[in-house]
Write a structure and sequence with these properties.
Layout: E1 4-9, E2 26-32, H1 41-50, E3 54-58, H2 66-81, E4 86-90, H3 96-105, E5 109-113, H4 130-143, H5 152-162, H6 169-181, E6 185-187, E7 193-195
Helix pairs in contact: 5-6
Length: about 200
């Protein structure tokens, strides 16, 4: 079984669901910028739970893309040591995408996701209860901070990325309606979505 490395751009994404990784054989590297002097308690607790499967990588210097270059270096170094590995870069930064395309052309298995819940091995099954599915969707939306979908169409697209199997529009609409029923979202004019998430 290939090693799965999860490399988190903590300057860009502060995931609130790292505990999802605990029951999987992933190695987690959280990259912390030089100006980040405090970590949220939930991150520290989740990292402790992961034990020797997780480590912090502190960046000494600062500057544009300093942390991104460190992540790129680590992907290259680890790919050279572990040729069959899979890499999951967790970042909203689309600047990684040209590098990822290049690495894929060199047969390195790497992808970028905005949240750990989007890692294929962690996606929720369509056979899960609607309550469990909504909980997974909420965790993902919370981890996105202010970069949440603003339209119903993009919210449905986000949901479809979190589910292993392909959902039809009827199922996606039912999940959106369940979120409305639970007062997690409001849908206004022009299908604009606003959020009332628990945290």
């Amino acid at each position: 079984m290939p090693t799965n490395y999860v490399l988190i751009d903590f300057e860009n994404v502060q995931p609130k669901n790292l505990e999802m990784l605990a029951s999987h054989p992933f190695k987690v590297l959280v990259f912390i910028g030089a100006t980040q002097t405090r970590l949220p308690r939930h991150v520290v607790v989740a990292m402790q739970t992961l034990g020797d499967k997780a480590e912090y990588v502190e960046i000494d210097g600062s500057g544009p893309n300093a942390l991104d270059f460190h992540i790129a270096y680590y992907v290259g170094e680890l790919a050279a040591k572990d040729a069959g590995a899979q890499f999951h870069v967790i970042s909203r930064d689309k600047g990684f995408d040209p590098l990822i395309r290049h690495l894929k052309s060199r047969k390195v298995r790497v992808r970028r996701s905005i949240d750990v819940a989007e890692i294929p091995e962690l996606r929720i099954s369509a056979t899960a209860s609607s309550g469990d599915m909504v909980d997974a969707i909420v965790n993902n939306l919370v981890s996105r901070g202010q970069s949440r979908p603003r339209k119903v169409k993009t919210l449905k697209n986000t949901i479809s990325h979190l589910v292993k199997e392909k959902l039809d529009d009827k199922s996606l609409t039912a999940l959106v309606e369940e979120m409305k029923k639970r007062k997690l979202i409001n849908i206004g004019k022009n299908d604009n979505v606003s959020y009332r998430l628990p945290r």
